[in-house]
């Protein structure tokens, strides 16, 4: 009981048998913001209180409402224990502690307050017990928790669910983070109080969660009136997070080395200056050269993990006790915020340039500047694994087609790591490192032999032994991996002429037929995957058409980090000046439907793409790889969709075509349903992608539910189904078309079954929102109606047929495409 | 002696007219040039000397006037002066440092002026004394190094660089400057790099630093181990290399800008007579500002960097708007987390000028080359053009450079300057599409080929030009890069070149081996004919190649006749010519195969003049009956090597640069009134 002077330790007593989870308890025990960090409760008092409470629980369950959470905790222990036979988990201990703490509050701080009295009165024991059964059951998942949190008016239930959140897997809760935070911002105090401890707890644990929260809080607070916004809970929490005071409880638990190390802020802090390596300062370059060379020798071959930052870091982290007292600006979140800010800044500046070409060039040069600051402790929030960004291959970036804004697509090289908060930031490898080894040895004219060189100065490392495998050399040594095309001799000569011809032992002349050359040329041109011709007005088409695998390989080859085994390539679309909150909503609905269909085993195919909302008018999108828009397909290939399928996948009887067709149908069915349910509008060909496997993917959910572009009354059909689409499916009488309709029916039935899971997502987000998709009062009602709960399956089938027929015959779709062509030049 | 006094008197008279009173400093110089040790009577003599404003001219002329006999007498005193100069460099009093630097300048120059023929060792002896020379120069270099790297005044650093430039250029032939041996031992390479890596110091001293480096690298380049060569070749610090690139970039950009201004000015004035303008419009009034001579040193530096340092290649492609970009200046003293963040936060805002084209060093260099190559009559321009082509040769051989030259994602509009010519209109700048950089290189080569077919044939440049094209083609073949380039322009330029060689055979043969060039050109065609499948962008382009050859068959026929004639006669060109006959085998096969086919097609269809489409049709349908011979080593090339082929050129170039630098250093730097003013306020 050394640190028995504050709350943490008092709670510690409750969980004495789990010292490992100490940090967890630390981090969530104070849930009322930094002001209460100093809250001191005598250890013994607290302990007594806990025991009292526990006894009460054992004696009389369910009588006093505010004890509800505590009673549940017993059950939890059992359930948890059976699930994790290996031993008590941190999350488990949390559930124990949380309610206890609330109890302490009520008992110690204001035992007789009006509020708690009122609570006690309001609760109906029998109803509670019924609910409790549900809550206890294994069926109770995050989705239900969120739903009850939203619908229940009982503070006790809300508080319970707030506590219950701790026991769900992080990923499950993260899916509902927008809902949680929106409730926090816009619903009453009780809900907020229930949610906050969890959020604060998670923020302490994770930088990325902190930032995620801060961004979402900012975005969802923005619809409030400016005067209320400033003092709203959301804004306050956001400030608290951004002030970076929600550090892991390391600072307090510093004396406990076990709990401290993983979350020590000094580690992340020191990482920051670690990434401006000493060489960037103006040292003598001689020593620079040697330093970096020695580093590179460490890196070479065995470089399975990026080199840990130099000892400088370790020094500072070991002296972190002194750092603790410094009240500098927050550094824990800063690098990532700055990274995002730079990306947004680029977007803003691009928007001022008139032509695509200028934008592209500008983008490239801006990114090359950004590269100077990398690697750093920054990451792409859209990625699925932990990593550090090491380089932005700036020449690969493209500006996307947009009329007045300047969204752009960048590729980002990252190194995968255990944990981006604690793993050390990779050391910078200069752009030219990949070739650095060639320096002296190829210079016959510098007038010295290797011996001379080695002897002439000690500072110059001997390059001759240097066998860095990844140094690319001159043309002569270049190896090109090419697909084996023909094995006839002429072709070999053509390919390997350097070796074969010069050492021609036989003096017999080699003859080739001109016709062969010509044929090879056209064959090879046909063999190379079709690329779009470069168009300065549509720079993204070429970049997006290139197969992802190929792009990864190409960029990897050209990257100084490419040799590292944990190298990965990511891409992201940076949107500046666009509100992505609706996109996020659509993403959630799509993901929910996807999991519903998966659960119900309906082979509908959709591709939800990740959305990162940074504010009400900026964000990032995870691009769909290997996909180009139908507009680009039509414009660059000048073919009908069916002909394009034939060109890309082969004739109608081939395996490749058939599987592409099946993919097309399954994705069409999926998106038709989505378009119908969500009322997705603005479905022109620029907003529908086609991937390399034949799937279509709808993007841009800017007009969903109650909003439609310009209210022109266009696009009255349920979804977009052009004759071209039907042609790819094999015509309106084909089997595939029937399959399409059948899939839609199955999909609709499955979705109907789990309607609540979908509705809930939308409904919560409607709270306090000014988004156009919630315009009017009938949004939810309309959405609910489109699930047609009252219809029989036969009636549903009829409905699907009607929808399909209606969409096929729809003139408005055609009209809308014509309208888009006239106004935006989209084919 | 008396003559010197008179001169001193004359000098005096300009400032204060009547009295032939000598300045104190002049009196003190006189004391040095006396036999006695000047400090003998006045122990504070040296201290006082460096407090006086230096009278450079007097000191220099005094040194020049010393006779051989006298040298022996006063050598101790001069040694002593040198010694004290070096010591004064370590003084805190900056005026003393300034004066010491200037005095050293005068010493180096005066002694060399006097002893032009003397051996380097005599000069060293006279300045420092043999026994102490090593120590003195070590001290000097160390002091200069610490001045250059320290936090001292920028003007002082500038003066240090001037002194070094002065020292490096005192002899016409840098390799005969024996004192530089000490500069080799006591390297100031690191100081130069530091200047280049720092943004602010680069801005002020970058030019001098780069020129100094270029010259030092050329000291006894071919005879001994020059540590500057070795060190330059291994530099891999990005900010430093970027810095060097930036200095070169700025110098070339400035020239390009001036040229453009001048061009626009002239065009405005002479617009009506534009049609009558032929070529060289600026050479007549050789404007000092537009002299390419001043850029020879910069170009040499670029060459050395590209040639010696493979890391520098990346700098060529480093794209940036045309401004100086800060390279994360981090104070080295306090490693603190915030320091790194600072630059990230204040990401240098680039100016938002929509007209500003993103550029890089390579683009600027190509533009510069296009200007310089326009006219090669002047010797300096010829040298510069040659150096440009050598640099391009190095670039074309480099794998990494080729990779970004051909990078489809790095498209640029490069406005090359084209010589105004009677038979063609000036291309409208705006229509240039944005393309990979290699297109600009090819354009430049084509442009050179078509504009330099003249009596005074620059054979050497043509050879380099054709070889650059060849190297690029080899890369494309090797990597199967199908560049969308209008190859037709290249083909017709090459055919025209052959035509020119044929029609001027006799005049050209007197000076050049035209068969070598012809062979290279024919082999370029052979590359296209036999390996076209690996790098041509469309199948149509292969047909067009045949079309072009068939269309211009007369040129090839004549060439064949000519080389056949020469190779059957005995003479010095016999072998060279016979190589061309062998190389022509495929071209002739094509012509002999398709010509009859085309004629019969015309006859059958009763068409007198076939359209291009019709000929192409004939070509397409008759490939299969044509057999070609595969020739040896078409995709092989000789790698560039400076020694021995280019050694003489570089020697001359360095000499020319030395003279020019020396002239400019003496002209504008050593009147240091400004400097003294600065320090008088400091101290």
TrEMBL record, chain A:
Pfam families: PI3_PI4_kinase, PI4KB-PIK1_PIK. It is a peripheral membrane protein. Residues 269-329 are annotated as: Disordered. Its EC number is 2.7.1.67. Residues 546-812 form the PI3K/PI4K catalytic domain. Its main location: mitochondrion. This is Phosphatidylinositol 4-kinase beta. It comes from Sphaeramia orbicularis.
TrEMBL record, chain B:
It comes from Sphaeramia orbicularis (orbiculate cardinalfish). Its main location: membrane. Signal peptide: none annotated. The keyword Transmembrane applies. Keywords: Membrane, Transmembrane, Transmembrane helix. GO terms for cellular component: cytosol; membrane. Residues 429-665 form the Armadillo-like helical domain. InterPro entries: ARM-type_fold (IPR016024), ARMD3-like (IPR039868), ARMH3_C (IPR013636). This is Armadillo-like helical domain-containing protein. It is found in: Membrane. The keyword Transferase does not apply. Pfam families: ARMH3_C.
């Amino acid at each position: 009981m050394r640190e028995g002077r504050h709350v943490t330790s008092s709670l510690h007593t409750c969980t004495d048998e789990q010292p490992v989870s100490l940090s967890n308890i630390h981090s969530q025990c104070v849930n009322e913001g930094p002001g209460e960090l100093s809250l001191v409760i005598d250890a013994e008092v607290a302990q007594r209180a806990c025991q009292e409470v526990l006894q009460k629980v054992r004696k009389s369950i369910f009588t006093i409402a505010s004890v509800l959470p505590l009673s549940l905790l017993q059950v939890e222990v059992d359930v948890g224990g059976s699930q994790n036979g290996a031993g008590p988990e941190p999350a488990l201990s949390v559930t124990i502690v949380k309610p206890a703490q609330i109890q302490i509050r009520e008992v110690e701080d204001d035992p007789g307050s009006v509020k708690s009295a009122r609570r006690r009165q309001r609760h109906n024991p029998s109803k509670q017990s019924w609910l409790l059964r549900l809550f206890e059951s294994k069926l109770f998942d995050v989705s239900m928790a969120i739903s009850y949190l939203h619908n229940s008016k009982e503070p006790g239930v809300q508080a319970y669910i707030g506590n219950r959140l701790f026991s769900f897997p992080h990923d499950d809760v993260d899916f509902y983070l927008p809902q949680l935070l929106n409730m926090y911002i816009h619903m009453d105090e009780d809900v907020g109080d229930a949610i906050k401890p969890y959020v604060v707890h998670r923020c302490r644990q994770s930088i990325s969660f902190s930032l995620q929260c801060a961004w979402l809080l900012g975005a969802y607070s923005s619809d409030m009136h400016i005067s209320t916004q400033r003092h709203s809970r959301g804004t306050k929490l956001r400030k608290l997070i951004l002030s970076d005071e929600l550090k892991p409880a390391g600072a307090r638990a510093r004396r406990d080395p076990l709990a401290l190390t993983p979350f020590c802020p000094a580690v992340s802090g020191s990482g920051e200056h670690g990434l401006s390596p000493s060489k960037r300062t103006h040292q003598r370059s001689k020593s620079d050269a040697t330093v970096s060379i020695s580093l590179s020798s460490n890196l070479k071959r065995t470089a399975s993990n990026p080199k840990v930052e130099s000892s400088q870091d370790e020094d500072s982290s070991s002296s972190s006790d002194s750092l603790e007292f410094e009240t500098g600006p927050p550094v824990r979140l800063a690098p990532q915020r700055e990274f995002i800010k730079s990306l947004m800044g680029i977007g803003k500046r691009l928007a001022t340039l008139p032509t695509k070409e200028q934008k592209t060039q500008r983008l490239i040069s801006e990114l090359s500047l950004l590269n100077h600051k990398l690697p750093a402790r920054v990451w792409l929030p859209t990625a699925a694994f932990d990593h550090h960004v090491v380089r932005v291959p700036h020449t690969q970036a493209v500006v996307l087609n947009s009329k007045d804004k300047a969204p752009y697509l960048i590729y980002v090289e990252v190194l995968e790591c255990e944990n981006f908060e604690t793993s050390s930031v990779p050391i910078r490898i200069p752009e030219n490192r990949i070739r650095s080894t060639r320096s002296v040895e190829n210079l016959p004219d510098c007038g010295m032999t290797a011996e001379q060189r080695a002897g002439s100065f000690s500072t110059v490392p001997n390059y001759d032994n240097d066998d860095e495998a990844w140094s690319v050399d001159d043309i002569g040594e270049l190896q090109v991996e090419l697909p084996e095309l023909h094995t006839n001799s002429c072709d070999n000569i053509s390919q390997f002429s350097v070796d074969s011809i010069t050492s021609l032992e036989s003096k017999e002349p080699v003859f080739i037929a001109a016709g062969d050359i010509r044929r090879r040329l056209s064959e090879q041109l046909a063999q190379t995957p079709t690329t779009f011709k470069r168009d300065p007005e549509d720079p993204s088409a070429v970049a997006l058409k290139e197969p992802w695998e190929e792009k990864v390989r190409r960029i990897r080859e050209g990257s100084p980090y490419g040799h590292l085994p944990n190298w990965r390539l990511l891409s992201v679309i940076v949107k500046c000046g666009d509100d992505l909150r609706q996109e996020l909503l659509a993403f959630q609905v799509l993901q929910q439907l996807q999991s519903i269909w998966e659960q119900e085993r309906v082979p509908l195919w959709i591709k939800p793409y990740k959305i990162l909302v940074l504010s009400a008018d900026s964000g990032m999108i995870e691009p769909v790889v290997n996909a180009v828009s139908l507009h680009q397909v039509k414009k660059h290939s000048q073919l009908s969709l069916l002909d394009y399928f034939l060109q890309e996948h082969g004739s109608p009887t081939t395996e490749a075509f058939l599987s592409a067709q099946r993919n097309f149908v399954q994705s069409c069915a999926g998106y038709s349903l989505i378009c119908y349910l969500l009322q997705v509008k603005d479905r022109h060909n620029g907003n529908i992608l086609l991937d390399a496997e034949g799937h279509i993917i709808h993007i841009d959910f800017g007009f969903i539910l109650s909003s439609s572009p310009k209210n022109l009354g266009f696009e009255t059909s349920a979804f977009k189904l052009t004759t071209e689409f039907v042609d790819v499916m094999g015509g309106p009488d084909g089997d595939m078309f029937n399959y399409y309709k059948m899939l839609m029916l199955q999909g609709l039935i499955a979705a109907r079954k789990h309607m609540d899971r979908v509705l809930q997502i939308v409904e919560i987000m409607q709270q306090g929102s000014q988004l156009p998709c919630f315009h009017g009062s009938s949004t939810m009602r309309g959405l609910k109606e489109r699930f047609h709960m009252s219809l029989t399956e036969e009636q549903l089938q009829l409905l699907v047929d009607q929808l399909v027929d209606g969409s096929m015959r729809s003139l408005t779709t055609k009209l809308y495409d014509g309208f888009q062509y006239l106004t935006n030049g989209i084919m | 002696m008396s003559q010197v006094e008179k001169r001193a008197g004359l000098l005096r008279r300009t400032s204060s007219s009547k009295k032939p009173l000598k300045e104190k400093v002049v009196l003190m110089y006189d004391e040095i040039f006396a036999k006695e040790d000047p400090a003998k009577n006045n122990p504070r003599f040296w201290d006082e000397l460096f407090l006086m404003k230096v009278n450079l001219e007097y000191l220099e002329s005094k040194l020049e006037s010393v006779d051989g006999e006298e040298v022996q007498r006063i050598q101790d005193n001069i040694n002593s002066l040198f010694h004290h100069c070096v010591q004064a460099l370590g003084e805190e009093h900056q005026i003393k440092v300034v004066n010491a630097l200037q005095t050293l300048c005068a010493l180096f120059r005066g002694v060399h002026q006097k002893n032009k023929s003397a051996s380097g060792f005599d000069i060293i002896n006279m300045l420092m004394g043999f026994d102490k020379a090593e120590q003195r120069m070590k001290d000097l270099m160390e002091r200069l190094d610490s001045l250059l790297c320290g936090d001292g005044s920028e003007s002082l650093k500038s003066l240090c660089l001037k002194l070094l430039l002065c020292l490096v250029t005192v002899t016409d032939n840098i390799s005969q400057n024996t004192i530089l041996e000490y500069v080799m031992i006591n390297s100031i390479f690191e100081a130069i790099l530091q200047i280049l890596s720092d943004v602010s110091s680069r801005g002020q001293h970058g030019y001098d630093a780069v020129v100094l480096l270029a010259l030092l690298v050329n000291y006894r380049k071919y005879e001994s181990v020059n540590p500057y060569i070795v060190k330059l070749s291994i530099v891999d610090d990005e900010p430093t290399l970027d810095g060097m690139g930036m200095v070169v970039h700025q110098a070339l950009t400035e020239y390009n800008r001036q040229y453009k201004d001048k061009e626009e000015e002239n065009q405005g004035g002479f617009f009506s007579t534009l049609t009558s303008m032929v070529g060289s419009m600026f050479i007549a009034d050789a404007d000092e500002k537009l002299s390419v001579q001043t850029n020879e040193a910069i170009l040499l530096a670029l060459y050395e960097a590209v040639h010696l340092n493979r890391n520098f290649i990346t700098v060529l492609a480093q794209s940036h708007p045309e401004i100086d970009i800060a390279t994360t200046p981090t104070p080295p003293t306090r490693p603190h987390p915030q320091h790194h963040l600072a630059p990230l936060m204040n990401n240098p805002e680039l100016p938002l000028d929509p007209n500003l084209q993103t550029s890089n060093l390579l683009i600027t260099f190509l533009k510069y080359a296009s200007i310089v190559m326009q006219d090669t009559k002047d010797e300096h321009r010829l040298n510069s053009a040659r150096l440009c082509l050598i640099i391009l040769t190095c670039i074309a051989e480099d794998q990494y450079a080729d990779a970004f030259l051909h990078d489809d994602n790095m498209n640029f509009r490069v406005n090359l300057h084209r010589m105004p010519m009677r038979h063609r209109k000036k291309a409208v700048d705006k229509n240039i599409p944005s393309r990979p950089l290699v297109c600009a290189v090819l354009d430049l080569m084509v442009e050179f080929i078509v504009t330099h077919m003249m009596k005074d044939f620059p054979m050497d440049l043509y050879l380099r030009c054709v070889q650059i094209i060849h190297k690029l083609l080899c890369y494309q073949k090797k990597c199967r890069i199908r560049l969308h380039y209008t190859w037709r322009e290249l083909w017709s330029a090459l055919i025209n070149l052959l035509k020119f060689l044929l029609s001027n055979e006799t005049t050209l043969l007197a000076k050049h081996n035209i068969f070598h060039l012809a062979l290279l050109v024919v082999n370029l065609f052979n590359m296209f004919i036999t390996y076209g499948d690996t790098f041509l962008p469309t199948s149509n382009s292969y047909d067009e190649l045949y079309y072009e050859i068939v269309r211009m068959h007369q040129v090839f026929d004549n060439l064949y006749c000519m080389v056949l004639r020469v190779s059957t006669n005995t003479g010095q060109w016999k072998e060279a010519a016979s190589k061309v006959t062998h190389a022509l085998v495929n071209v002739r096969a094509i012509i002999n195969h398709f010509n009859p086919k085309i004629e019969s097609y015309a006859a059958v269809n009763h068409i007198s003049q076939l359209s291009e489409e019709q000929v192409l049709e004939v070509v397409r349908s008759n490939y299969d009956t044509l057999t070609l011979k595969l020739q040896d080593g078409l995709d092989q090339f000789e790698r560039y090597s400076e020694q021995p082929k280019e050694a003489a050129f570089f020697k001359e170039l360095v000499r020319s640069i030395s003279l020019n630098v020396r002239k400019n250093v003496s002209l504008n730097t050593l009147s240091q009134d400004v400097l003294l003013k600065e320090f008088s306020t400091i101290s």
